């Protein structure tokens, strides 16, 4: 068999023939077959050489391309900085301007909201060149350059991966935002600047005031051996309060009342699934919106679980005063059982395990989901999308409920998760603090232009264009209280700043115009039956249950936390999808064994030291 | 002696780029195995002052509840792909070879070869749409036939089959062409002789075509044994979701998540190292059996 080299008649098999013929000749024909095969080898060699040359050319091209975008620019940056260094003394004022301007580098993510709802509607502004980059350059003399931009949210796989590679390579941009675990790793690797004195010197009084409004927790979490290693972008826990958002047009249509107990919630979910609330005669609606990530500000399960006194992802105090992890308490098992039953009865989308927030938002838009747990802003996104699609749809936020009907605790995760670090050896380590100063000044300071830089009508999320986004933690509650007081007094004249802008939106909505329709979401938050009113209620009823662990992550957390979180989420998803409920016990065991026990011990050591 | 050396010199040159490639991408990175025994902090560098932790990383991996599952997934998905990836192209090559109309034959050949050139990123997106239980064309077909829709990418019973099926669909065109080439090399005289002896098409395929392909079949199967623990990162990565980790998570995606997403470099390297050792044993074993049963050797 196969004693002859194959013919080359069949054109389309040429390449494969070539391979096969080499194999065969190599095995049998090569040794003695004289000039003919030698010539063939030379031909092949030349051909191979050409291919290789092409490959190496490609590589060079690629490298050059990279070089053009990275290395030379970096050099320019350094040169620019050197130039600026000479007289940077002129910019010691927290809002002072660098002259000549300096350039600093960072890395960003480009979220859906910014891409579509902001850049999509603003003409002449891009992610690299917009009102925020312009104001930073004009007023501070700081040019911001993004070394890379990844599309998606900061917790998307793509962003996390790119970030980890950047951190592992040790080639950091001038400043960047990292999470608590990464902050600790960077501190241990000695890659970032000590910010203690810089913060004292460069932070404006307004910045210092606002960043301290959430207590010392955020700064404690960024302090290692007495050194402040990052500027925390302080986030308010109170904004993380959960509500249950319900389509009230469906409620009315089916003759149901807003929920008072968890049993009511389950009954509403059942009715929304089985009683054809959209009236199209098809069983195509779901009772409860859930995403594959389980938790989060929209379609999250924290509020649902809290109804069963289950507080996953939170460190809570047990009866003996010790801290325990909420996710492994037996109450969670009970809540999972309820969710599993809902899934079995078709009240939760059977595809939820592969749907992220964006996909579930599409279902909400399409009018397939009638209830979801989420934070106060849900009416702006994703519910406004549903309103745009079905003008008769109506949503309202209700307080979360408990099984017995008594007031439930509202869990609040420690929510400062962004820490801005500065690369060790950066030419202008203080630049990021100045960005903080100006961002706060332009939105809430004396020269604030709130409806230009924070939430202009045409693009609500303009503030997200800025690489740093600090905000007063209590700003929304404050605005609500001002508006509510004005509403009760019947006099809106005294309102100013954020409250004024918001009230204008409510007025616009009440006018019934088409423009007003687009700000329906705002009315649902700050209006008379808005979600912020419930936050106010929660606060007055003292319902908040705050995460008890507010320090830098412990050593075991740095190593194991994200793996344990994934183990938890996978187990929970599987249980909802129908795994035996007892796999929860197995999860608790695994969690403890894989570092959970050690974490609990470390957390309690910290807790004891704070008392 | 000298004559032979000179004659073979071009061959040695030909192998040089390949050797360089292997040296740079397979041997040099082996130094990184030390990471498996460290609590690795990247900023300190490979030879920096890392903390040595002995077998801790390996013990941790063994404790992970998903690890054994992931290992068996890898093995079963990869071996199914291996076996079917061998049989399907052979059958197709023989069938195509029997086609007399050149136009039809060429068109089919081109059509089945096309998906081979698409990357899994592209195909992944297409498959997710095609196979969706709500609105996907495949399930539309199933329901119109009165069958229950199947959640191919979300159902743990179906996911491995979907992986294997789509992988074969993408790649069998390439295999078919290699086998067709082997068939072209068979001496036409053999067929003529068989026709004169009164053999029908079946007989000719069985007694001439198949044996004629034997060397190429054995060669390709031995070569593919090296892939025994490579269940296809690109494919799985683009198609899976936490819902089907149970049946579809493989060692490579596992390493990716631990290493690049969780930044546990030591643990990820330990898993990778473990995989290499098992692969080595499997390949050595299968090579031995290939020789025992088929008398075939590459070296």
Automatic annotation (TrEMBL), chain B:
Q: How does it sit in the membrane?
A: Multi-pass membrane protein
Name the principal localization, coarsely classed: membrane
The keyword Transferase is assigned to this record: no
Q: Where in the cell is it found?
A: Cell membrane
Q: Which Pfam families match?
A: BPD_transp_1
- Record's GO cellular component terms: plasma membrane
Which GO BP terms sit in this record? transmembrane transport
Q: Provide the alphabetized UniProt keywords.
A: Cell membrane, Membrane, Transmembrane, Transmembrane helix, Transport
Provide the transmembrane region boundaries. Answer: 12-37, 70-96, 108-128, 172-191, 212-233, 265-290
Start and end residues of each ABC transmembrane type-1 domain:
71-286
Family listed: Belongs to the binding-protein-dependent transport system permease family.
User: What protein does this entry describe?
Assistant: Sugar ABC transporter permease
To which species is this protein native? Paenibacillus nanensis
């Amino acid at each position: 068999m196969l004693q002859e080299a194959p013919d080359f008649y069949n054109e389309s098999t040429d390449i494969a023939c070539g391979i096969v013929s080499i194999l065969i000749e190599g095995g049998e024909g090569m040794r003695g077959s004289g000039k003919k095969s030698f010539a063939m080898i030379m031909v092949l060699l030349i051909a191979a050489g050409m291919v290789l040359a092409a490959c190496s050319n490609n590589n060079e091209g690629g490298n050059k391309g990279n070089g053009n975008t990275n290395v030379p620019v970096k050099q320019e940056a350094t040169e620019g900085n050197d130039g600026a260094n000479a007289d940077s003394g002129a910019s010691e004022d927290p809002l002072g301007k660098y002259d000549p301007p300096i350039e600093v580098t960072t890395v960003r993510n480009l979220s859906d909201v910014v891409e579509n709802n902001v850049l999509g509607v603003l003409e002449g502004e891009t992610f690299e060149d917009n009102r925020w980059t312009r104001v930073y350059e004009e007023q501070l003399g700081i040019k911001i350059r993004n070394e890379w931009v990844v599309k998606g949210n900061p917790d998307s796989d793509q962003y996390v991966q790119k970030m980890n590679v950047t951190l592992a390579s040790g080639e950091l941009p001038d400043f960047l935002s990292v999470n608590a675990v990464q902050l600790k790793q960077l501190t241990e690797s000695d890659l970032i600047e000590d910010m203690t004195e810089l913060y004292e010197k460069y932070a404006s009084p307004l910045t210092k005031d606002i960043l301290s409004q959430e207590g010392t927790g955020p700064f404690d979490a960024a302090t290692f051996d007495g050194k402040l290693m990052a500027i925390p972008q302080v986030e308010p826990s109170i904004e993380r309060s959960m509500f249950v958002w319900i389509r009230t047009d469906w409620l009315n249509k089916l003759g149901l009342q807003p929920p008072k107990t968890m049993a009511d919630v389950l009954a509403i979910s059942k009715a929304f699934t089985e009683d054809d609330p959209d009236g199209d005669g098809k069983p195509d609606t779901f009772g409860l919106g859930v995403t594959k990530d389980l938790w989060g500000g929209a379609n999250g399960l924290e509020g649902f679980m809290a109804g069963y006194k289950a507080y996953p992802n939170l460190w809570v105090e047990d009866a003996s005063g010790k801290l325990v992890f909420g996710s492994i308490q037996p109450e969670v098992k009970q809540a999972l059982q309820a969710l599993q039953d809902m899934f079995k009865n078709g009240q939760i989308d059977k595809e939820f395990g592969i749907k992220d927030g964006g996909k579930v938002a599409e279902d909400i838009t399409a009018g397939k989901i009638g209830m979801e747990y989420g934070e106060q802003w849900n009416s702006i996104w994703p519910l406004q999308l549903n309103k745009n699609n079905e003008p008769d749809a109506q949503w309202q936020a209700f307080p979360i409920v408990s099984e017995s009907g008594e007031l439930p605790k509202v869990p609040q995760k420690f929510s400062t998760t962004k820490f801005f670090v500065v690369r060790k050896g950066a030419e202008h380590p203080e630049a990021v603090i100045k960005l903080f100063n100006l961002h706060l000044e332009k939105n809430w300071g004396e020269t604030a232009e709130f409806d230009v830089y924070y939430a202009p009508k045409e693009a609500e999320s303009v503030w997200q264009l800025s690489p740093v986004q600090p905000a007063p933690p209590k700003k929304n509650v404050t605005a609500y209280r001002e508006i509510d007081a004005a509403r009760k007094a019947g006099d809106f004249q005294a309102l100013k700043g954020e409250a004024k802008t918001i009230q204008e939106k409510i007025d616009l909505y009440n006018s019934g115009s088409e423009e007003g329709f687009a700000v329906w979401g705002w009315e649902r938050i700050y209006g008379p039956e808005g979600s912020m009113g419930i936050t106010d209620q929660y606060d007055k009823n003292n319902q908040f249950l705050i995460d008890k662990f507010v320090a830098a992550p412990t050593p075991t957390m740095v190593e194991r936390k994200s793996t344990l979180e994934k183990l938890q989420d996978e187990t929970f998803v599987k249980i909802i999808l129908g795994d035996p409920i007892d796999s929860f016990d197995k999860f608790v065991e695994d969690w403890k064994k894989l570092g959970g026990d050690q974490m609990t011990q470390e957390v309690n050591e910290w807790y004891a030291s704070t008392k | 002696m000298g004559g032979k050396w000179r004659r073979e010199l071009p061959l040695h040159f030909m192998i040089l780029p390949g050797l360089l490639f292997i040296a740079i991408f397979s041997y040099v990175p082996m130094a990184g195995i030390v990471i498996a025994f460290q609590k690795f902090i990247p900023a300190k560098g490979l030879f920096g002052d890392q903390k040595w932790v002995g077998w801790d990383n390996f013990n941790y991996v063994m404790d992970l509840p998903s690890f054994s599952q992931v290992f068996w997934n890898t093995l079963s998905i990869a071996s199914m792909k291996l076996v079917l990836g061998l049989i399907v192209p052979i059958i197709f090559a023989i069938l195509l070879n029997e086609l007399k109309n050149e136009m039809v034959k060429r068109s089919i050949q081109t059509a089945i070869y096309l998906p081979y050139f698409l990357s899994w990123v592209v195909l992944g997106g297409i498959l997710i749409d095609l196979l969706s239980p709500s609105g996907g064309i495949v399930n539309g077909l199933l329901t119109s036939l009165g069958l229950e829709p199947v959640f191919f990418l979300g159902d743990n019973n179906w996911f491995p089959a979907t992986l294997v099926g789509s992988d074969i669909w993408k790649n069998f065109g390439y295999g078919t062409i290699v086998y067709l080439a082997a068939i072209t090399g068979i001496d036409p005289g053999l067929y003529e002789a068989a026709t004169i002896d009164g053999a029908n098409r079946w007989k000719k395929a069985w007694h001439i075509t198949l044996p004629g392909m034997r060397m190429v079949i054995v060669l390709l199967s031995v070569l593919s044994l090296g892939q025994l623990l490579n269940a296809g990162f690109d494919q799985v990565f683009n198609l899976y979701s936490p819902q089907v980790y149970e049946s579809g998570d493989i060692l490579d995606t596992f390493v990716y998540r631990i290493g690049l997403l969780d930044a546990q470099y030591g643990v990820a390297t330990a898993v990778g190292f473990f995989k290499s050792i098992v692969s080595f044993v499997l390949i050595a074993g299968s090579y031995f059996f290939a020789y025992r049963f088929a008398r075939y050797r590459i070296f």
